[in-house]
Write a structure and sequence with these properties.
Layout: H1 2-19, E1 24-25, E2 30-32, E3 38-47, H2 60-72, E4 88-96, E5 105-112, E6 123-130, E7 136-143, E8 145-146, E9 149-152, E10 157-160, E11 165-174, E12 187-192, H3 197-211, E13 216-220, E14 223-227, H4 228-231, H5 236-243, E15 247-248, E16 255-259, E17 264-267, E18 272-273, E19 276-278, E20 283-289, E21 292-294, E22 305-307, E23 310-316, E24 323-325, H6 331-339, H7 345-357, E25 361-362, E26 364-367
Parallel strand pairs: 16-26
Antiparallel strand pairs: 1-15, 2-12, 3-4, 3-6, 4-5, 5-11, 6-7, 7-11, 8-11, 9-10, 12-14, 13-14, 16-17, 18-25, 19-24, 20-23, 21-22
Helix pairs in contact: 1-6
Keywords: Bacterial flagellum, Cell projection, Cilium, Flagellum, Periplasm, Signal
Protein name: Flagellar P-ring protein
Organism: Roseibaca calidilacus
């Protein structure tokens, strides 16, 4: 099993090394200034649940909302004992994409607020979605697709997934557009997703080669400014369309990312290790309780006594010789050197942390 895990680790690292120097489209590396989405938020009501809605004693706001909706529809429920079990208050979220026009549809996410146990089979009642400025930009409504399931009996209950949250594909319709005059921009800033001076310089050079003029200028490791008038393009949109598919070979900082929960290790192709010697071992502690019951003789006045007995054992792990890891000049050599120790990936996480503490790991160690 250990060989299988280590083999998988080698494959992951080899794949990382293979794709590290691949070219990437410019639009997958940067965000164009102003071309961004907007988050929307709403508070609504889900109806049609099969007895899995909010307990109105614990969520009185659900009852207030249902009363307001019915009164707007001409139904007077004032003073009535109105406590249905098939309604639930929810928070509705969505993202308004850039340049979305009135009438376009959006996917929305619905999440329970109160103590509802499931939104399966529910229908979201018309809910306005507000932006950060408080303006209503979309309205959501529709049947919810919940991703979980609940099986319940008299003495047991089993839940898979999260039945208190779901989505409505195309469940919101855009009612108001976000005003943004892209063509009025004389300069467009390109913000790198991963700031790096070498990558920013490559982007500047690639854009200038595309237009055969000095239209792009790197200002820092995370920003490249495109001067639209110098490109000679018909509009800002035409200029961005010409550069968004340019291929760039991004340069990135050497990193080793480890996930302690799953034992996953990912190394970049530029990771280097100086020549070090490593030994790995551990202790196994076993503590076992073996109580002894002592009973009195028959028909005697004695008492039954439980005598505690504890067996404690401290065992050294099998000795592991001090192994030397040569200074790696490539990712494959580093992997071969670490695998030569014959340890599991979880133990390798501790080894990498120790190598980093010794100053022999020439990369950023990211522990998650």
């Amino acid at each position: 099993m250990r060989c299988g895990i280590l083999g998988l680790l080698v494959c992951v690292l080899a794949l990382t090394a293979h794709v590290a120097h691949a070219t990437v489209r410019l639009k997958d590396m940067v965000e164009f200034d102003g071309v961004r989405g907007n988050d929307l938020l709403g508070y609504g009501l889900v109806v049609g649940l099969n007895g899995t809605g909010d307990g109105l004693r614990n969520a009185p706001f659900t009852e207030d909302m249902m009363t307001n909706i019915l009164e707007r529809l001409g139904v007077n429920v004032t003073g009535e004992q109105f406590r249905p079990k098939n309604v639930a208050a929810v928070i509705v979220t969505a993202s308004l994409p850039p340049f979305a026009r009135a009438g376009a549809t959006l996917d929305v996410t619905v999440s329970a607020v109160g103590d509802a146990t499931s939104l399966l089979g529910g229908t979201l009642v018309m809910t306005p979605l507000n932006g950060a400025d408080g303006t209503i930009y979309a309205v959501a409504q529709g049947s919810i697709l919940a991703g979980g399931a609940v099986a319940e009996g008299a003495a047991a209950r089993e839940t898979r997934g999260v039945p208190t949250a779901g989505i409505i594909p195309g469940g919101a319709r855009v009612e108001r557009e976000v005003d943004f005059a892209l063509d009025s921009l004389s300069e467009v800033r390109l913000a790198l997703n991963v700031p790096d001076f070498s990558t920013a310089l490559q982007i500047e050079q690639a854009i200038n080669r595309e237009f055969a003029v000095h239209a792009a200028r790197m200002t820092d490791s995370g920003t490249v400014i495109l001067q639209v008038p110098k490109t000679g393009a018909r509009s800002t949109a035409h200029a961005l369309a010409r550069i968004e598919n340019l291929r760039i070979a991004p340069a990135s900082k050497a990193r080793v990312v480890v996930d302690q929960r799953s034992g996953t290790i990912v190394m970049g192709a530029d990771v280097r290790i100086s020549r070090v010697a490593v030994a790995q071992g551990g202790l196994t502690l076993r503590v076992e309780e073996r109580p002894l019951v002592v009973q009195p003789n028959p028909f005697s006045d004695g008492e039954t006594v439980v005598v505690p007995r504890t067996a404690a054992e401290l065992e050294d792990a099998p000795p592991v010789a001090l192994a030397e890891v040569e200074g790696g000049t490539s990712l494959s050599e580093i992997v071969a050197g670490l695998n030569a120790l014959g340890v599991a990936p979880r133990d390798m996480i501790d080894i990498l942390s120790s190598i980093s503490a010794a100053g022999a790991l020439h990369a950023e160690l990211v522990v998650r």
